[in-house]
Amino acid sequence: MSVPSVTIGIIDYGLGNRRSVEKAIEKVGARAVLTADHEQLRAADALVLPGVGAFPAGMELLRAGGFDELLRERVAAGVLLFGACLGMQLLFEASTELGGAEGLGLLRGEVRALEAPGRKLPHIGWSEVRPRGDSPLLAGLPDPSVFYHVHSYVPHPADPAEILGISDYGESFASIVGDGTVFGAQFHPEKSSAHGLRLLANFAALAARQTA
């Protein structure tokens, strides 16, 4: 599996499986740059925002490093952005977690607790994702695909057209989202074997086309 030459900047803000994401991106044939340096991130063809943990802490770290404004700047310039797990949640306007916090606001909607009565939380393990629509981010993936999830909160996009994939755990929830420039996955693609690598390869290919 390989993609055209493209450089993907990984935001190193202190949260997430950053090295695992770096290795997965390199495995699909793209150049990965894991850095907190704004100029290196500005030079990248696309960006990835990883993340694990709580939404308020994630936003606090992004703001402390000036990454919130950097991400808004790059997205406004048309640079593709992919958020993974907590990184996906941070793309939205707000979360109710731990009393609530404002997000990046790059996608409209709110992140709320997963409604899973009688089931253990966090939701940990492999879950099917059913594609919705015909996004190039999902090219070549089977219906359903399986990805590795670890989370207790889920996004509720304001625009249903931005829901690209749906999973079920107690309730149906948006597991993949995107508006054509900003994309996200509630799962960890870097831990999701062949399907996760395919998703990252598709993102890299989109970035290569965008910069061609």
TrEMBL record:
Keyword Ribosomal protein: no
Gene3D superfamilies xref list: 3.40.50.880
Bilayer-spanning residue ranges: none
Catalytic activity: L-glutamine + H2O = L-glutamate + NH4(+); 5-[(5-phospho-1-deoxy-D-ribulos-1-ylimino)methylamino]-1-(5-phospho-beta-D-ribosyl)imidazole-4-carboxamide + L-glutamine = D-erythro-1-(imidazol-4-yl)glycerol 3-phosphate + 5-amino-1-(5-phospho-beta-D-ribosyl)imidazole-4-carboxamide + L-glutamate + H(+)
Molecular function per GO: glutaminase activity; imidazoleglycerol-phosphate synthase activity; lyase activity
Domain named Glutamine amidotransferase: residues: 10-204
UniProt keywords, alphabetically: Amino-acid biosynthesis, Glutamine amidotransferase, Histidine biosynthesis, Hydrolase, Lyase
Pfam families documented for this protein: GATase
GO BP term (any one): L-histidine biosynthetic process
Database matches in InterPro entries: Class_I_gatase-like, GATASE, Imidazole-glycPsynth_HisH
Pathway the protein contributes to: Amino-acid biosynthesis; L-histidine biosynthesis; L-histidine from 5-phospho-alpha-D-ribose 1-diphosphate: step 5/9
UniProt keyword annotation of Amino-acid biosynthesis present: yes
Subunit: Heterodimer of HisH and HisF.
Record protein name field: Unannotated protein
